Amino acid sequence: MEISQIIAGLPSNIFIILMVLAGIVIFLVLIIYIIKYLMENAPFAYVNARVRSMESRLLDSQKLDKLIESGDIVEVIDILEDTDYGAYITTSNDALLIEKSLDMYLAHVYKVLSDISPGKSKKILKLFEKKYDVQNIKTILRAKHVGMDAESIFGLLIPLGTIPENKLRELCEVKTVDEIMNGLEGTKYSKILSEELATYEQTGRLMSLELALDKYILESLWQSANMEGTNEDIFREFIGTMVDVENLKIILRSKVDGISSDNVLKYVLKAGYELPQWKLKELAESESIEGVISSLEGTKYGTLISEHLEDYERVKSVYVFERALNAYIVKVGKNLSLRQPFGIGPIIGLLTSKEQEIRNLKMIIKGKIEGLPSNEIRELITI
Questions:
Q1: Could you list the residue ranges that cross the membrane (predicted)?
Q2: Which residue of 125, 126, 135, 148 pairs with 143 in a disulfide if CB–CB is 3.0 to 4.6 A?
Q3: Residue extents of the structural domains in the chain
């Protein structure tokens, strides 16, 4: 007997009771969903208010145009005086010093957001602070490589992360990579550097050390983002896209530098988001930039990269692809902010926009110090 016949055979009062019960069940499920959503997102009310306030102070295209068209670095600093960067940046012709000022501001933004964010989101944002551990270690490695003195090196470091300030100062005093590795004993960073030491000694290049450190940060973020819950799903999508983008940057650079696929695969994170392990292997084994683009067909990155092939052939620099990938991360951040306007979405949107803004400022400042014309500076930034 069909269900429709069974229902038709029921007394009308029983049918009405069943309909009412079904309505109550649906209503309760809906209420439970709403309560769960509110419980997850209510703690973000204050955070999101702060985020919206900070978003309102992002530099608009008019302000960026003014910076690009400014006469020199002094005028750039003057324009930035009435922005959030004014308290951090000072007039100087030292690009490294100005870059540190901008990095200090970004570190402040990360710290503020991690301090005021609730629950698991706070833990994940705290992991982002480890980026400054890696940035500081890379700065020390590079500075030692070119023979800078300890005091100058320490002046370039960002006092944020898990490595204490006194330990950073000690690391600035040592002479070799071996000694830096020993100075980090007891941390994950020492093991990472020791595993790549032989490659560094063989090649004399810091790239293997730096790529291994970058990979560790991505692994940490990816592992922490794989949690249950709405806000964590948003984080997983964001960090997964970051993983794909960083993997692509490494693979694209390897094609220009002539690095073998085996070496490339050591430094990509194999837990790709849209780009699974087999696809990463295929991309790494491609013989050229054009081969990478061909292999990316059917993915969201295929069109994104191929659209900039003509620019790459003109300037012969993978920077054109990296700029496009950075812009894509910002776009993803903004989309996630719109998709979840009352949770972690706005934090992601703000952080991606801030990082892009600071990249643009660094390019503008470097261009002004080097005397580049405005049209060339404009080609280097993303608006």
A1: 14-35
A2: 148
A3: 129-224
End-to-end Cα distance, the chain: 66
Q: Which amino acid is at 321?
A: F
Q: How far is it, in rounded angstroms, from Cα 51 to Cα 44?
A: 10
Can you list the positions of beta strands (E) in the chain?
A: none
* pLDDT surpassing 60 at residue 9: no
Record the tokens describing residue 299, joined without a space.
Answer: 């993915």
For residues 308-314, average pLDDT: 90
188-247, pLDDT tens digit by residue?
Answer: 999 999 999 888 888 888 999 999 999 999 888 888 777 544 456 788 888 899 999 999
With tokens 């269900």, the residue in question is 3
pLDDT confidence band for 13 (50 / 70 / 90) = low
For the domain 129-224, what is the CATH code? Answer: 1.20.1690.10
Calculate the CA 243 to chain-centre distance.
9
DSSP 265-325: HHHS-SS-SSS-HHHHHHHHT-SSHHHHHHHTTTSHHHHHHHTTHHHHHHH--THHHHHHH
How far, in Å, CA of 248 to CA of 199, rounded? 22
**Is the four-CA dihedral 249, 255, 258, 261 of positive or negative sign?**
positive
Please give the C-alpha separations between residue 175 and each of 62, 142, 161, 171, in angstroms, as whole numbers: 47, 12, 23, 9
